[in-house]
Design brief:
The strands form 4 sheets. Strands 9-10-11-12-20-16-15-14-18 form a 9-stranded antiparallel sheet. The chain has a 5-stranded antiparallel sheet with strand order 7-6-13-19-17, with no helix packed on it. The radius of gyration is 18 Å and the shape is globular. A hairpin with a 3-residue loop joins β14 and β15. By secondary structure, it is mainly β. The protein has one domain: Beta-galactosidase, Chain A, domain 5, CATH 2.70.98. The chain has 1 helix and 20 strands.
C-alpha cells in the first residue's frame, strides 16, 4: 500500500451547452480544471454504445462521433474513464511547424479539425465502425477503426494518419486517457500509475486496472504517465511527466514518433483492457 494518505479531491463537473468555447486558459491551472490553450470542450455524448455480459463479465463502453472512448465499465459497477471531467482521445503534432491538433473530449479539443466522417454500415451501436477526420489546414487525415474482444474486455483502436500536406512531415501521434479506475477509487480520484515497454496503466491495489497497450510495432514509441489528469499538449508531451510509480490524480498515454512523406500513411494500433 502507498504511504500517501488519501485526501478527497473533488472534480469539476461540466454543465451547460454541449460545446463551450473557452478563453485562453493557463496550462498551469489546478489539476481538475486543466485544459489546453485555445481549445473547445465538447460534452461526451455517445454516438455508439456497446454492451456485453453482466456481473463479473459485464463489459460496456461508448464512443463519441469524434472518436473518443468516453466510457469503459467492467465489471458491473466499476467505471474507469467516465468520472468527473472525461478525458480520452488523440493528438497530433507537426513537429517541424510545432503545430498541434487534438481532441480529448471534456479535456479540450483544438479548433483546427473538420467534422468527422463516420462509416458504419449497420448504423449506430454496430461494427464495423470507422471515423475519419481531416485537419482544417489540409495537413493530415486521421482514420480510426474500432473493434472489441468482449471475452478479453478489449477495445482495439487502429489509427491511420495520412500526410495530405504535399510536403514531408515529422509527426508525433498521441493516445491519451484520464484514467479514473474503480469509480475514481470510489470518488477520491487517486489511482496508482505505472508503465512498461508497451503498456501504461492505472489501478488500485486489490481492485481493477485499466491498461492502454500498443499492438507491437517497429514505430518509435513512448509510454507516458502525467502527474495531472488534464490533457497533454501533443507538441510538448513530456511536460508534467510523473516519476513512477505515481500515486495521485494522473493520466496516461502512448506516443508514436515517425517521419511521414507527402501522400503517405502510417498505421499504429492501441488497445484498452480491464484486468
Amino acid at each position: 500500500m502507498t504511504a500517501f494518505s488519501k485526501v478527497s479531491i473533488r472534480k469539476e463537473l461540466l454543465v451547460g451547452m454541449a460545446v463551450l468555447t473557452l478563453a485562453v486558459l493557463s496550462c498551469g491551472q489546478d489539476q481538475q480544471g486543466q485544459v489546453l490553450n485555445q481549445a473547445v470542450v465538447h460534452d461526451p455524448v455517445c454516438q455508439s454504445t456497446f454492451n456485453y455480459g453482466s456481473g463479473q463479465t459485464l463489459f460496456n463502453f461508448c464512443l463519441t462521433s469524434n472518436g473518443n472512448l468516453v466510457q469503459f465499465t467492467s465489471p458491473e459497477g466499476f467505471e474507469h474513464i467516465r468520472e468527473g471531467l472525461t478525458g480520452e482521445g488523440y493528438g497530433i503534432c507537426d513537429t517541424g511547424l510545432n503545430t498541434g491538433y487534438f481532441d480529448y473530449a471534456q479535456r479540450g479539443a483544438s479548433v483546427n479539425w473538420n467534422n468527422p466522417v463516420i462509416a458504419q454500415p449497420g448504423g449506430p451501436n454496430t461494427f464495423p465502425l470507422k471515423m475519419t477526420r481531416a485537419t482544417s489546414d489540409q495537413a493530415f487525415t486521421l482514420t480510426q477503426a474500432f473493434s472489441r474482444n468482449p471475452v478479453e474486455r478489449i477495445v482495439k483502436i487502429i489509427m491511420t494518419i495520412k500526410n495530405t500536406s504535399g510536403v514531408p512531415k515529422a509527426v508525433t501521434l498521441l493516445r491519451y486517457a484520464d484514467i479514473d479506475a474503480n469509480n475514481a477509487d470510489h470518488g477520491d480520484y487517486l489511482n496508482e500509475f505505472d508503465y512498461g515497454f508497451e503498456s501504461v496503466w492505472g489501478y488500485n491495489t486489490g481492485s481493477y486496472s485499466l491498461g492502454l497497450s500498443l499492438v507491437p510495432t517497429s514505430v518509435s514509441h513512448s509510454e507516458l504517465v502525467w502527474d495531472k489528469p488534464g490533457a497533454a499538449d501533443p507538441c510538448s508531451p513530456r511536460l508534467n511527466l510523473a516519476s513512477t510509480p505515481f500515486f495521485g490524480d494522473g493520466s496516461a498515454g502512448i506516443m508514436f514518433s515517425f517521419p511521414l512523406a507527402a501522400g503517405k500513411s502510417k498505421t499504429v494500433s492501441v488497445e484498452y483492457q480491464r484486468f
